[in-house]
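cache lookup: miss for this entity combination. No prior model stored, computing from scratch. Input as submitted by user K.M.:
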Amino acid sequence: MSRILAPLALLWGNGRARIGLVMLGGFILMAVLAPWIAPYRPTYGGFAPMQPPSAAHLLGTTQLGQDVLSQLIWGARVSLMVGALAGGLVMLIAVVIGLVAGFLPGWVDDVLSLLINVALVIPGFPLMVVLAAYIPVHGVGVIILVLSITGWAWGARVLRAQMITLRGREYVTAAAFAGEGIVRIVFREILPNMTSLIAASFMGAAMGAILGEAGLEFLGFGNPQVVSWGTMLYWAENSSALLAGQWAWIFAPGLALALVGTAIAFVNFGIDVISNPRLEV
Amino acid sequence: MAKRFVFLVFTLWIAVTLNFLIPRMMPGNPAELMVRRIVGQGPVNPQLVHAVEIMLGLPVGSMAHQYVLYLGNMIHGSFGVSYTYFPYPVMQVIGQALPWTLALLGTTTIVTFVLGTALGAFAAWRRGSWFDTAATVTANFTATFPFFWIALMAIYVLGFLLHWFPINGGYGAGLTPGWNGTFLASALDHSILPALTIVVAGTGGWLFGMRNNMIHVLGEDYVRLAVAKGLGGHVIALDYGARNAILPNITGFAMSLGTLVGGSILVESVFGYPGMGYLLYNAVGDQDYPLMQAIFLLITVGTLLANFLADLAYGVLDPRARRGGESS
């Protein structure tokens, strides 16, 4: 337990990271408690359509007469889930490729480094668009898959570099002399020393995934029946919400995305300061 | 140098091959999709599908045969016929969109790089000051906004409410593209909002990179020596600090350019700006696969070339890299 709590306490000590943690916690709470705090069901369409913000509908209603605020609260579930799942998958791929490349110099590293470099320079979003366009089903699962395939290179590169630095440390040599196997050395000796870096790349990947999902859904690659921040923006744009004066319908989901992104960036900033004290202001 | 060139050719080949493989790994065929779009949910006549296949010139034969044919077509710049703009070839459709994107993205890439790097260097130099705090917090915030959302808000406030700028398209209605004053003025007027959006969303990334590098460099011994020698603040900040700190920012070009390119697709789609991004958006909506593939390939090739040039610039700027030192 203390292995989880101790780093969290360290993060909490950093001002910016604390703000980030509180914000992130707020959004997670909102997602979990959605059925209780949302004023209406997000898909219930019995209200007057295209209403501007009012006391009954704080953010107005959609073209189908749904309550925008309720959609915003429920939408947090999909956006955060995609962030966590795609971020986790991306990190998993990055850890495996980065650690193997860093630990096995020679042709294994050469091949994997080439793979990392190629994946880094091929622009991710156009690739995502083409992949998503060819996959016949549209939905959250496909988006998570596409985000994972395209997003791992940056993390892998950072972890590989760190692995190369750590590989030469004395405790690793000592562990090898003590007869520990490669798997144990990598996962029990070296991996714990990379926790902050892995946490940072998970957060970065999650943020990239949340923004990527919103972008793909905005372009119409999502399942438009699912309520998420990306599909809200898709429907708002397709109903010409701005020209109808429905600014809140577009403003709110975008701001929510930006706030989640900022929260993650703040937490990452804290992680950065802890692992690299020179950056501290 | 030679190594970088080999890498460029290799990545180009990977991109071209991906472009070949992705459509073939997925189920369904474009002719069937096209027929299905016309007839709706009913049964699909196989003869009709075959006729459409021939009309679109869909590839036949073994995968290896198709691949060789495909590579040959790539070399000749032949990407087939667009489905939506049938019978115009894809390259002709793209030819009309390309200048718009080159102008918009070329300008904004340079502006964001210069602006972000300068602000980042200044923030690092005045580390802990109000400017540093304001710059990093603002950049933190803007870097996490979705590009298309900034675009939507810019349209609403600056275009719809204040009427400062036109809200849609690349030039005024009724104008024909050409090298005359009226058209160019209109085009410029229409591109200010998209450009502003990309600059606002894209500067943060450079700013952070530069600030962190610069703080790192300012902690080096040779900077301390410069201070001890009594050199002026300007000399230390620019000749000792920024000059060295800018190098990693140039290698970081790859990642940031990718983000910028991806973001501009969304920005163009929002503004209905007649460039490659908007064309891709429409191609996706119309299931115009040849057009989509060609755009993807061109965007990728453009990004790879820009990276290659950034790498070359790095080699010129950093003597260590020129001597063949490995920079990972």
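stored under new cache key. Chain B touches chain A through 63 residues (CB under 8 Å).
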